[in-house]
Structures are given as C-alpha cells and as structure tokens.
Design goal:
The protein is mostly helical. It has one domain. The protein is built from eleven helices and two strands, in the order αααααααβαβααα. A two-stranded antiparallel sheet has the order 1-2. Helix 3 packs across helix 10 and helix 4 crosses helix 9. About 4% of the residues have low confidence. Keywords: Membrane, Transmembrane, Transmembrane helix.
Amino acid sequence: MHDMLGLAIDGEDINELSLCDKGNQILEEWRGQYSCDNFNSEEYLRRIQATTKDSLMFRLIFLTLFVNNFIDSILMGTNQIKVVRKLVLVEDFSKLNWCKYMRDCLGSRKKLCKRGDKSSYYSGPITLLILVYVYNMKYSIKLDKRLPFIGHINGGNLLEIQRLEISLGGFGRQFRDKHDDVDMRDETGGEEQKCSTLRGILEMSMMMSIRGMKQEAYVAVIGHSYGVILREKSTMEVALKDGLEKFPDSVVLNE
C-alpha cells in the first residue's frame, strides 16, 4: 500500500477515531458546500478544480474523494461520508495510518461481496488491487515502475493495458515482472515526490469518476487534461530545442 500509493504506514488508527457532534462547525461548513446532501465524486472534483489555494476545506474534499475512490469505494451511487465526521477533529492528517485503514477495508469489504451474485459488487480498494497486479506483470508496453507507483502511471496506461490483455485472450496471461530493471535510485524525493503522488491520485480519481458526469464535470476534466498536455508539450519543446543545438545532424531528433 505504501509502495503503490505512498500512504503512511504508521500513525493513529482511523477506525478508532471519535466522531464529531453532528452540529460541529467544521462539519456544517463542509456539508454546506453541497446542495441537498449531494455528496458524490463529481461534486468533489468540481470543487477541487475550482480551488486555487490550500485550506482545510480543500483537504477535507480531497480526502473524501480519496476515501471513496481508493478505499471505501462508491456503492450503488452513494458516497461514504462518515469518515468526514472523524477527519474534522484531526489536527494533522499526515499522522493517520492510512495503510491500516485501507488494509482493514480490504478484508471487511470482501466479506460483504457475494461471489456469483451479479448484484453484489466489491466496493473496497479495487484501485490498489489493480495497481499491484499491473506492477507485478511484465508488458510489451513501457511502464515507469518507480515507487510510489501511482505517481508514475495514469489512467491512459491502464486503458492501454486493458486493451492489450483482452486482445491476448484475457487477464493473467502475462509473465511476472521481477523488477530487475527498475532503478530506484532515480526516484525523486521530498515535496516533488509528494506532488507526483497527489497528481497521480487526482488523475486516477478523475478516470474512476468520469462515468455519469454532467457536462460541466466533463469540461473540468478535459480542461485539467489539456493543461497537463500543454505543460508536457512545453517540456518536450525545450528538450527538443536543446537536443538539436547539441546534435544538429541527429536523424531521430529532426524527424
């Protein structure tokens, strides 16, 4: 869980945290952002997109989105907001044991899932299971498998892998990756690593929440993705210009 998502491996047990009173001021402020108790990933994404600075409300929205998309997933269109009543009392979110919270949910949600029952869905940390699977399989597609893995893979990669595996006859037909060629020394650290991980979580949340969105939400997702493309394009142009100045006769660079 730490390797896949960069989550803290120690700290306070989230399941043991107390619930705030229903009239808690911070809780009421958080609830007041949504009309008719419309708590869903689409609304969370819209508010995250509209935020320009860090704040307690922004962190609560992000963590609520994270919990529902990565840990205690959406079940029958309903978001799990009980955790918000715990988070509003927390002074430092980094001191919570997110790995244990996710691990506990893995087991508890499995017990609720009835195998063979098409109306019974697994609503636990499915993204974690997907990342673990992809990380441990070897593909013809080039993947950056540095850790935390979510900071180096995106929804586009997963869709490409899905198409590849289906074309080969189904999942689980790949060779196991022993990761002999992964150079962890290239891994970034500190704030850069945190930003990379958070970007990965947000992008994956967008991919997971995109079905059933309204027009405005699609525009927000496309706008975010377009911004990412522009930044990557700018980086590529700088690298290409520098490369051509150093190697003007390079056939590959000129092409």
